[in-house]
Amino acid sequence: MRTFRNYILTMALTTLLVSGVSVQAQPPTGEPGADLKQRHSGLNPNSKSPSKLPGKPSALNPETLRLMEMIEKKNRELKKRETGLLLREKNLELLEQKVRADLKKIEDALIRSEEQVGIKRDLIEKNIIALVKIYSAMKPQEASTLLENLDQAIAIQIISRMKSKVAGKIMGKMDTRVAKNISESIAGKPKNR
Q1: Helix axes 62-137, 140-149, angle to 10 degrees
Q2: What are the tens digits of pLDDT across the range 93-139?
Q3: Which residues in the chain land under pLDDT 70?
Q4: Are residues 77 and 8 in the same domain?
Q5: Which residues make Cβ contacts (< 8 Å) with residue 71, sequence separation at least 6?
Q6: Structural domain tally of the chain?
Q7: Which residues share a beta bridge with 43?
Q8: Which domain holds residue 176?
Q9: Is 154 helix (H, G, I), strand (E, B) or coil?
């Protein structure tokens, strides 16, 4: 920012020089403090009459005034833009913090959900194992009747986990069509649609 102001001042001085305003140096007189007295009193020591300071224009050039106003306007615009950018940056930081907090909540919810799904899977697995034991302990005729009336996906899980000797006796007592479908599903044959 300081460099920009230095640039503006240099431009203003250049404009003054180009517009014809000249700054002239006065040779010092032999008397100490005479130069200072001259500047403050406004009198020329030789003429004893008031005079204007050399090199100081009575009024600024209109072009110079216009340039200075334009520079000041640009400075105000830059300051306004800088303030806007700082505000946007602050808003973005707040938004980023909010998004991170929301992501953390989502990640925590996903972890809890995965834990619950794992618990549910474990529970289903334990229940299937319990059902396999129950149906394996039944008489083949009773087990086949119950398995025929179960949802086929559950019946497949139960039969596929039984010992082959027990599963064979139960499937031998099942309806042929149901036994065929269960056998094909266990073998991985796709269902006809």
Answers
A1: 150
A2: 999 999 999 999 999 999 999 999 999 999 989 999 999 999 999 99
A3: 1-3, 5-6, 12-59, 191-193
A4: yes
A5: 8, 11, 12
A6: 2
A7: 50
A8: 138-187
A9: helix
